[in-house]
Structures
1.
Amino acid sequence: MSDDLSGATLAAVTAIVDRALDEDAPWGDATSEAAIPASATAIARIVSRVHGVLAGGLALQLAFTRVDPTLVVERSLADGDPIAPGVVVATITGSARSILRGERVALNLAQRLSGVATLTRRYVDAVAGAVSASGAPVRLVDTRKTTPGLRVLEKAAVRLTGAIRAVRARIPHTMHLEVEVDRLDQLEAVIAAEPDTIMLDNFGLDDLRAGVALIAGRATVEASGGVTLDTVRAIAETGVDVISVGALTHSAPALDLGLDIAITPGSGGAAGGAR
């Protein structure tokens, strides 16, 4: 299955997974090695327990294959696909010890990234149809408020849902001047400096409308601060071009995914179950 890494290179994802595996069990999985024969094989399935949007499929796959390249990981869905309770996301076949060694890292990463994608989809849906003062669709962007070490993956999860991509194409972040203001009386001097983007930070709705009117198309208008699912639609209807939402990455709850495992009959070990 191909992966739209959205800026996350294979090498970068592999490095993240390797660090996570080393952090999780630097001395190996002593419990599995003590309780499960080396010959035991198993079939495991990653199953969704809730509704949401899948992300982190490549990281999930690598969490198993970096432990044991002989494991066979078959992903049933692509990143960005909707999931529901009982939906099988991936099937893993091979050494039971190896599957259990990779399980926690695979679930941690897939749950975290699917949570980001799911929350972002809710925000994207909330602003659907809203247009800026210029008549263009209002766009959402993420921020630097990411989990240390996971930024490249979390930003890729955000992009899966349609947030950020159109803005970045229109507003490249190389040689780009953005100025932040937190009061209307700061705008005159800032507009005179001709920045590419003016960020209106923690403005109320009336002040956002006033700011959009004062800027009058001379810069891209970005609203930031105090953005929630309850407020984002009203903010989108003030005429701003862009809304930056830190919550996409700093407040996304993990999506509930689980691993159901069954030892292959005759290969040794216990029967297995849900984890």
2.
Amino acid sequence: VTIENISLVILSSILHSLWNILTQTSKNSQFFSGLKGVWL
């Protein structure tokens, strides 16, 4: 396992956490969920 792989995993975890917060707190949760589906 390289440092790049570890960084990528941590970064993706942070991004997923941010997405979860956005989708839970935003009134446009369906929009954010759709946007996440497009990008991921």
3.
Amino acid sequence: MAGQRFQFEELFLPHLDGAYNFAYWLTQSDSDAQAVVTQAYLLARQEFAKFRDVDARIGLSTDARIRLLTIVRRVARLRDRKGAKHSKIVLFSDPFLDPHSATHQHLGHTPPEVVSTVVDQESKRVLYEALSRLPLEFREVLLLHEIEELNYNQAAAVLEISPDAFLNQLTMARRSLRHELGETRG
């Protein structure tokens, strides 16, 4: 029993950050994301004996990361259907990005590497805001492929769709994100 627990932890714990990031973007709430990940880990633990089986529908051996992200998605969707309250949080609370902060007002006297960091942070903020405005289906495909760096087959497995359907959604999601970014800049 202890060996199985150790094996579970060895396989699943390295994916905790990715599971939280995915859950956060699905729920857009820190507390909801934590609850989703906790529940997903409990479910993954319960299913651990079945986890290595081949998924006949997809035809791929299931690995811990894919399995965990699939469970995270299911739990988040179920919570959403049940009407879990989503608290909105500020994406960034950084003095560099606050136009009223002393740090922001003195950027003219800041070394170039700090200014570069501020520009990078501003770019991330704009990207994250645009991403958060996308429909959930588009956020999911972009997060799995671009942020979590899953290949098409892996991401399709998490979403429980065919790779062709995933590619179609990814194309539409990228187009929508470009549109959102264009509106933000324009």
4.
Amino acid sequence: MRSSSPDPGNPWPHDMQIGIDQPFDLVALLYARHVRGLHVDDLPPIDPVPDAPVDPVDDGERSDVERRWRRDWARAWERFAPPSTVVREPDDETARALAELTDEELWEWASGASEPWVRDGDSADFGAWRSSQRKDHRLPLAEHPERVCLDALVPAWRSGLRTIVELPLRGFFADRVGSTHLVVSHATRHDPALYRRALRAAP
């Protein structure tokens, strides 16, 4: 979202560019957390609630499934971390992968989720549920959340904010990830009072 050229009558700074991200992998993990009845984090419940019925994993598999979920959730956030120049020893799981996997298996292990969290039987519901959250495209430009809350967005951008990460979570949720990313719930971004509160929070 950016104004292409200076316009004295346009309150949006012409050089301000803000990305809106709804990362597929994070959204898919939250969906799986709900429909598979996982208890894996302290995030708010999912919102809106999918139509797919909750089908909890078997008790005998729960510990392993929740471990893999946590691993993939942490991995999905790595893209937002600033690059590190510190060289560390690999953790036990990474060391085991380096020792045991072929080059092809290692590439698959390192490049994505450990499993498809949206199962074949859930794909239609997941697609419809995800589409229901993408209402911005039907809004007039002046009614987009960033336009409505421009008074709070501009100072946040000047402090380093470059991307809004929107997740389907219930109620108010805001978490600044470094100086460049702000994670908010769908409810927060689409409520001007809550969105201003999130944008004005200290980095």
